[in-house]
Amino acid sequence: MKLTYALIVAMLFLTACQLITTDNSRGRQEYRGARARTKMQNYKIFKLTKRCDPPGAACSRTNNRCCHACSSPPPGQGKGKCTNA
Fold first, then answer.
1. How far apart are CA 51 and CA 29, in angstroms?
2. Is the pLDDT at 78 greater than 90, yes or no?
3. 2, 40, 54, 72: least CB-packed within 10 angstroms?
4. Does one domain contain both 44 and 56?
5. How many CB atoms sit inside 10 A of residue 59's CB?
6. Domain span holding position 66
7. How confident is residue 8, by pLDDT bands cut at 50, 70 and 90?
8. What DSSP string describes the chain?
9. 14-51 pLDDT, tens per residue?
10. What is the pTM of this model?
11. Same domain, yes or no: 59 and 69
12. Contacts 24+ apart (CB under 8 A), 25-30
């Protein structure tokens, strides 16, 4: 009996949540394709702008964000330097 009441209350709660969210989302799906196209263009622009470390910055094999190349570290040191070549 308690389980039945719990299920009824849960179903009423879920139904109320669905009704609340559907009222708030009315009219938001009109320009779905245009929004997706704009997001894709912004993503392409973001991918084309490469953010890299300047020459002389520390780098390693696991953390290599150099614009050109990462020189091998000297013996005894764990990090190399970003170079222009």
1. 34
2. no
3. 2
4. no
5. 21
6. 52-84
7. very high
8. -HHHHHHHHHHHHHHHHHHHHHHHTTT-STTHHHHHHHHHHHHHHHHHS---BPTT-EE-SSS--BSSEEPPPPTT-S-EEEE--
9. 888 777 766 555 555 555 555 666 666 666 555 555 67
10. 0.35
11. yes
12. none
Cβ atoms of 65 and 80 within 8 Å: the answer is no
* 22, 25, 41, 60 from 44: Cα distances, Å: 32, 28, 5, 28
What residues have CB less than 8 Å from 7, skipping those under 6 apart? none
| Number of domains composing the chain | 2
CA distance 58 to 56: 7
| Amino acid code (one letter) for 49 | T
